[in-house]
Structures are given as structure tokens and as C-alpha cells.
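User: Continuing from earlier, I have the next pair ready.

Assistant: Great, send them over.

User: Here they are, in order.

Assistant: Folding the first of the pair now:
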Amino acid sequence: MKTTILMKKLFNLITILLLSVAVFGQDIKVKNNVFEVLYSQSLEQPLWIKYRSTNRPTNVNRGHMDFYKEPGIKTSDAEDYAKNIYDKGHGAPAATFSDNMENLKQTFSYLNCILQDQYLNRGEWRLLEEQERKWDDTENLTVIIRVYFDNPVKRIRTNAAIPSHLENIFGLKPVKSGSVLYF
């Protein structure tokens, strides 16, 4: 009888600890077929996103796709982007991975979503993504997006962190001497 009670208490304690790590753990690294990300659950934003941009054909349309949460990971959500100046900015661009529906859908994970000022997302960021697709016509790119935050971190009303700036690094291959471009 005492062993059963002790086992139940131990089971409950382990469950609580595992849930705490899953929900409140600081950073989590995730890799799928499209991108690799180091995601901060406390900031509810990626710290960096890495992907390969190659000359893929456009075979599917994003239609009315929207971002989705990943089970067991504390990410930003639709409420974070409601009634403010921020867009759901893709890290790995949807247009780059519209070769098939599975790849396209993976770009709509909140793990790949950066809180971006609407003018940045619809302006210079969009133009940089278009340039990337021009470059990948002739070269395979490794792209790393680093996301930075002020100290102390600024947050929106729902508590998601607001990035202070982004760094986009393009590694171009094959190039005889190798090239890296920073933006």
C-alpha cells in the first residue's frame, strides 16, 4: 500500500517536472525538413533560424494558410499579432518553400515566425526575400537569421518579446573562394 502511494507521488512529481521543462524551459532546438531553429520559449520568439535556399519550383499556393502552434512548445500565437503594428514575419520564407504542400506548411509554424514591424516585413524584408530567390537561381544558399533583443527586453501586452533587430547572413555556394553576405 505504501509502495503504491509512493509510486503515485513519484509519478506525479516526474509528470510535473517534465511539463515544467516542456512549458517553461528557456530554449529549444528544433529541426524539420525546411528549417532549423533555436527557439526561446520565455521570449516566445526564435533566437536564430537556419535554412537552405535552392532553386525550387513554385508548385503550390499558400492560399489562406495561417500560422499554427507546435504541441508542447510555448510559442507566440495569433493574439500576439492582433491590434498592433506587428506582422507574423516568416524566417524561412513561404515563397522559397512552395515546391510542395508539406514544405510550405512547415514555414507556417510559429517556430518560424518573427514579430516584425509591419513596415519592415512588407518593405525591406520582403525585398531581401525576393533578392534571395534571385540569388538561389544560380547558387545554393545557406541562410541564418539571428534575432536580437534589447536589455531589458521590450514586450507587447501579451508578453511576447519584441526583437530590437535582425541579422540575415547568406552563405553562397558554390563560389570558388566562398562568400558570405551580412544584412
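And the other member of the pair:
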Amino acid sequence: MPFIGNQPALSYTSFAKQDFTTSATTSYTLDNPVTNANELALFINFVRQEPTTAYSASGTSLTLTSATSATDDMYCVFLGKAVQTVNPPNASVGASQIVDASITSGKLASGVLPDNTPAFFATMSADQTGIPDVTWTKVQFDSERFDTDSAYDATTNYRFTVPAGKGGKYFFSSMVLITDVQASQTIGSIDYAFYINGAQNVYSSYIFINYNPKTYNATVNTVFDLSAGDYVEMFIKADTTAGATFNINQNNTTLARCFWYGYKIIE
């Protein structure tokens, strides 16, 4: 039927309830006034009492036929007082009541959505010098820019270890600058590799024909499917003329000339 004024908001109805602190008495005070005992459903020790026989009520006064004890559990439901709200009752809304694609990330609590962690970024505090020819040598990235889960060891093993409960696919990338090949020697080839659990897994290879540099940037990128406890390290090998040693040149700068980083991919 038609009405005058604003359209009422949809409301949800529940009955008001009152819990009592019991003692050895027959008299209690109600939170809401009633006309008579029939407007209350009274429960003592979870047993519903008969109105007018077990209790009477008028206004805010509740009178029991028999006194309660301090150990009794007593509450009432106000049958004549329905509480209305525009908010649905707790746990009453399910997935079928929500419009598809209607919830934005701004409405979700922090930590509900997955993120790209663990994540780390490591660089070098100084040059790594005297690296021997044709020998796989671990690259010592000993300085961290960030390490969300304290999963990168920058002091002893220079490795990233997957934390407990954080297995999955990870992206890794690294770059180093090889310089200072001894005397008049040059670089014939470079291999730069990711090791997993101490074994070579993925590497990039640079072979120089008709051009033998003394300085070169080596890079490598990959995605690994890792389990908790797996660890990843960086190793390098260069073949120089006449067995010369070489350096990885960070140049003692605060800029990340040599670095590697990694993060968990959201699946």
C-alpha cells in the first residue's frame, strides 16, 4: 500500500534478552518494563518457567514464587519487545547473499589478501676479490636492503631459505659486474648460476668469440617451485685467459651495482 515519507530501511528482528545475577531472593529488576508475566519467557537453569505460576511481572518488577540461589543460572527473553536493526544478525550472511565482484580490497582486513612475501633484496658491502679461474665460487651478498621474513642469511651462508609454511613459486633475479682480470688477461666465458640445496639448477652462460672483455655484467633470472627448508644461493665461474683471477666489483658504493633479490609469487 502507498505511504507518506521516506521508505523504511530493511530491518532484522530479534528479541531482547536479559541475564540476571542470582542470589537468595525472589525479587529482581527488569531492564525493560512489561505489562504482565506473559510478556516474558523466564528460564532458570535452562528450564522455562510457567508465567503467573512460577513468577509474576509488572513494570520493571519480577517476582518469583520460590527464591533462587547464587548458583542458579537465570535469564529472560522479552517477548513483547522486539529489537529492530538495519544490520543483519551475526553469521547470517553467506556467500550467496553477496553480489559477485562487489567486494573491494579496501573493505577487507589487513592480511586477508596474499602478498609477495617472503621477499628480500641483498647486495654487497665491498668487492669480492681474487676469485679463481674456472672454479664455481659462491657470491657473497653480505648486505640486505630488506628481508621481510628474516629468511636471507647475509652473514655466514649468503643464502635464502624458504620459511616454514611459505613453500610455493618464487621469482629470483641477480646481476654482478666482473672486473679486474689480472694484467693483460681477458674473459673467455662466464657462467652465473642459481644453486638449490647445494646443487646447480639454473644458470646463464656467456661465451665470447672474437671479443674478450675485461669487464662484463652477468645476469640471471628464474622461477623456482620451492618447499619449506629449501635454500637458494648464487655461484659464478669465469674462464679467463692464462688462468687469471677476477673480482666482482661493487666499488664500495651505496648503489646496488651487484645484487640479487627474490619474492614469493601470488598464485
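Worth noting for the second one:
The radius of gyration is 37 Å. The mean pLDDT is 88.
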